[in-house]
Amino acid sequence: MPRPFRILPRAGSTDQLSIEPLAAEHIAKLIDPLLDPKVYQWIEPHRDEASFWAFCEAIIAGPGDRFPDQTWWNHALFDRVSGAGVGRLEATFIGDQVEVAYLLGSRWWHRGMGSEALNWLVDEIRQAAPEITIWATVHPENEPSQRVLLRNGFSEVHDFPDTLRSYDPGDLVYLFDAKQD
Ligand SMILES: CC(C)(COP(=O)(O)OP(=O)(O)OC[C@H]1O[C@@H](n2cnc3c(N)ncnc32)[C@H](O)[C@@H]1OP(=O)(O)O)[C@@H](O)C(=O)NCCC(=O)NCCS
Fold first, then answer.
1. Residue 160 Cβ contacting ligand 1 at under 6 Å
2. If pLDDT is split at 50, 70 and 90, which confidence band does 63 have?
3. SS (HEC) of the chain
4. CATH number for the domain including 17?
5. Shortest-distance atom of ligand 1 to CA 100
6. 104 in ligand 1 pocket by Cβ < 6 Å?
7. Which of 3, 69, 173, 179 has an alpha carbon within 20 to 30 A of 165's alpha carbon?
């Protein structure tokens, strides 16, 4: 079994975002952006506020004994100007691979925030683990997500490990290519 990845997630910022390791005190600010039904066109939605709280508490608690080979980084995204909740980031480490995902409330789309958040996360991962391979899986109809990946150093690949946790049959798979930097 691959050993879990030990480096803790850090706080940071981009031009438009402040970024914090997800904590219980962030959840209230994320309800508005992340219970937005538009966010879940291609992703399993949260049923209601209570299930969103429970979900956030579970990801903050981490993989624990259920997934002993995994490490989870979860971050909350905030608008740097207003402090409002914008969305969240996740990175799932298993062995020498990590999968990334990003979700922003729809009122924040089309401002470059998705790209800023993804770039920040990729930089953090590369500093923490320079040799790791960085993957993303996307529903084939999720064009905004595919554009964000293609603009930010990822390429679609057809050969990928069967250990990707977020892969559903039919998904497109993207791999970060450091040479495109
Ligand atoms: C995918 C997602 C994160 C994209 O976020 P975003 O913040 O809108 O992404 P960006 O702003 O970086 O790029 C999107 C568009 O904004 C444009 N844009 C980039 N910078 C901009 C700026 N400064 N001002 C205005 N527009 C800008 C881009 O050109 C791009 O345009 P296009 O979509 O017409 O090609 C967002 O749509 C989302 O959260 N979707 C729901 C959840 C999801 O599906 N997540 C992915 C699967 S894990």
1. no
2. very high
3. CCCCCCCCCCCEECCCEEEEECCHHHHHHHHHHHCCHHHHCCCCCCCCHHHHHHHHHHHHHCCCCCCCCEEEEEEEEEECCCCCEEEEEEEEEECCEEEEEEEECHHHCCCCHHHHHHHHHHHHHHHHCCCCEEEEEECCCCHHHHHHHHHCCEEEECCCCCCCCCCCCCCEEEEECHHHC
4. 3.40.630.30
5. 48
6. yes
7. 179
